[in-house]
């Protein structure tokens, strides 16, 4: 188990809460309403696919993203591949309900999780691995302040179409965190 999500992380608009079995149906309702939005995720398009995703998400210590105003589930994100000896983890497997895409939800979720990673877990690097065809996520990670490190060629097989695609690797390191944090706080305040 990852042990990165033992407590909820609360922001102004959203909260990150540990994933539990009670969240399954709400997640299914979201992803089945707009499957094309989740083509680069590991959620899949069937309940069987979602069961596989759910099992791994619980092992990884995933969070669900909750809207503070309505207390509804609007997405999920997680730190994974935690290596405490080196001080590294990846941040990803992030997805949101269609109405949350392009809003302040992602900046605030990233602020909460990066703050947890750098300030609570004392990590020195947080990585992001994104399908090279997923331009929306690549742009979002660059907008956070992450640096692109390279491309892993023919690195992952996509669930939705079986294509073996390239993976773009990005990171934020501890010395960049203060600037990234200020940028995210300003983005949230101006929304």
TrEMBL record:
Pfam families: Acetyltransf_3. The keyword Kinase does not apply. Residues 16-147 form the N-acetyltransferase domain. Keywords: Transferase. Gene3D superfamilies: 3.40.630.30. Signal peptide: none annotated. InterPro entries: Acyl_CoA_acyltransferase, GNAT_dom. GO terms for molecular function: acyltransferase activity, transferring groups other than amino-acyl groups. The lineage of its organism: Bacteria, Pseudomonadati, Pseudomonadota, Betaproteobacteria, Burkholderiales. SUPFAM superfamilies: Acyl-CoA N-acyltransferases (Nat) (SSF55729). This is RimJ/RimL family protein N-acetyltransferase. It comes from Hydromonas duriensis.
């Amino acid at each position: 188990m990852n042990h990165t999500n033992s407590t909820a992380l609360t922001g102004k608009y959203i909260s990150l809460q540990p994933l539990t079995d009670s969240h399954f149906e709400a997640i299914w309702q979201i992803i089945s309403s707009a499957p094309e939005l989740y083509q680069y995720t590991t959620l899949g398009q069937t309940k069987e696919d979602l069961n596989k995703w759910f099992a791994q998400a619980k092992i990884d210590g995933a969070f669900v993203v909750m809207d503070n105003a309505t207390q509804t589930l609007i997405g999920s994100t997680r730190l994974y591949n935690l290596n405490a000896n080196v001080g590294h983890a990846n941040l990803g497997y992030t997805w949101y309900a269609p109405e949350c895409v392009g809003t302040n939800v992602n900046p605030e979720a990233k602020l909460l999780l990066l703050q947890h990673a750098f300030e609570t877990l004392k990590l020195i690097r947080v990585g992001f691995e994104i399908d090279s065809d997923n331009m929306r996520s690549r742009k979002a990670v660059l907008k956070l302040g992450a640096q692109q490190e390279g491309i892993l060629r023919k690195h992952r097989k996509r669930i939705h179409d079986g294509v073996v695609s390239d993976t773009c690797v990005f990171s934020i390191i501890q010395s960049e965190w203060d600037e990234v944090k200020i940028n995210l706080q300003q983005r949230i305040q101006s929304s």
